[in-house]
Structure formats: structure tokens, C-alpha cells
Design brief:
Blueprint (H helix, E strand, L loop, with lengths): L2 H16 L8 H14 L3 E5 L3 E8 L5 E7 L26 H17 L5 E8 L7 H7 L2 H4 L4 E4 L10 E5 L6 H14 L6 H26 L8 H18 L21 H9 L3 E5 L11
Parallel strand pairs: 3-4, 3-5
Antiparallel strand pairs: 1-2, 2-4, 6-7
Length: about 300
Amino acid sequence: MPPELHQKLTQWRRHLHAHPELGLHEKATSAFVQEKLTELGIPFEAGIGGHGVVATLTRGAAQGRVGLRADMDALPITEDTGLPYASTTSGVMHACGHDGHTASLLGAAALLVADTSWSGTVDFIFQPAEEGLGGARAMVGAGLFDRFPMTRVFGFHNWPGLAAGTSWVFRDESAHMAFAFEVIATVRREEPHLFDDQWAGQVRSMIEEAVECEAQFADDVLSGGVVGLTRREMRQYLEYVADQRLTTLGLGRIYESRNPFAFLELQDVQELTNFFERRVSAYQTAVQGEISFDAAF
């Protein structure tokens, strides 16, 4: 990445961080995105599903079309970091990193504008209202995929704890993992002849891999200290959820762990269960690329 672009993206990210807006209220953020897209010379459409923006860049004769997506909204959290670019909006903060997501997508657009080696169409999707407010649904309802017929969409979520140049890669379509469990359960129930020992072994291996992956993730998170939650309890809970999933699929338990949170039952922690399922096929891999942001970003 050219140093001047890195400097520019840092400035943009810090501007966005200092001026966060809650979901459904991203008017200034959307205007900022539109301003930068105009500077880059990339045509766009605004007001899609609220304050959503989609920019389109086409090069060459190739017919392939993909989308790159970032979210723009902040959270109702008071920032107390003391940073020179801390939030100037009382009670609102980019605590989930959507300022970095937005700046990164603008950076990707800038790099692709300057790169003449590719051919096809890329749509840059700047989504509002991601934090539980249905921004994606609103954009789809506004005809996102009819107006911009992408065959695939790619996105990422920042994780400041990872070293620069290191990425978490999802081997499967993680957003559909809960549905995948239902498919496996249906096959197990209605087409048992298809569910042979090899398939069952693969499912169990996937579950075991997921537990190790999530346990490592929990270790990283809990290393800073979280009141009322230990690493051992988190691993036990992951094992407990894994056994519940295996039981649902008609497979035997692996861990026989009890729920360490005696005051909770599985149905009361569905959100944590969903989180586990969304990440069940994740694994950590180091990807060394040409683009990385240092801590100063």
C-alpha cells in the first residue's frame, strides 16, 4: 500500500471514529462516504435501505461481479479513552470498529481504482444499521441484488488483538451454519443411509475443531480479566454446547461436560449458542499479504 494512501485512510478512520452515529442515523457518515467516493471518481447510488450506499467499479470485459461490504453504524457507548480522535458525540462510540470497516472499504476502492490488472465489476456496499437494526434486510428489500446482481459478497470484521497481517478465515459459509445443522439433522432423520460413519466422523471432527478454536478465542478475550467468568468455565460451556449440538444431530456426546453456569439453561443462552454455531467451522491461519494496518491506524 502506498504510504500516502495509508496516511489518508488513517485520517479518514479517525474522522469517522470522532464522529460516530447510531444505526438508522448515519446521515453524516453516509455523506462522508459519498464525498470520498466522488474524490476517487467511483459512481455510486445512495439512500439504499436508509443511509446505505453502493458504489460500482467496472473494468475490462469480464462478466464476473462481486460485492465488498462494510458496516457504518456505531454503538450507544460512552468513550473514555482520552485519544485525540475520541468520540465527540456524547454516549455514542465506534466500539465495534465499523469506522475501520468503512475506511478499509474505501481503501479497497482506492486500490482497485489504481490497479489496472483486473477485469470485471466490483460493488462496494456501505451498510447502515448493522447493530441489530435490520440494515442488511432493508438494503435487500430496496432491491440490492436486483440493482447490483452480484454473484458473491465478501466482508470481514476487525479484531485488534490479532497481529498485523494475520486473519481469521472461515472455511465454510459461517452465516449459514445454523441452517447447516438443520440440514444434517434432516438427513440423519430422513435419509439415514446417506449418513455413514465417515460423514459422522467428519461432523464430530468439525465440532472438536470448533471447540478448540473457540477455546483459544476465549483465552485471548479473558486474558484481560472478565469478572465472573474464567477460562475453564468458558471451555466447559463450549463443550456443553458442542454436546448439545451432537445430541441434536443424533450423534454421541464427546465431552460429557456440564453447563458451568448453573443458573442458565441452553434455551436461555441462545445468543451464545448462535455465536458458537456461526463460528463452528472457523480456523486461524496467518495470511501474509501486501495490505496491513499497523497499530497507529
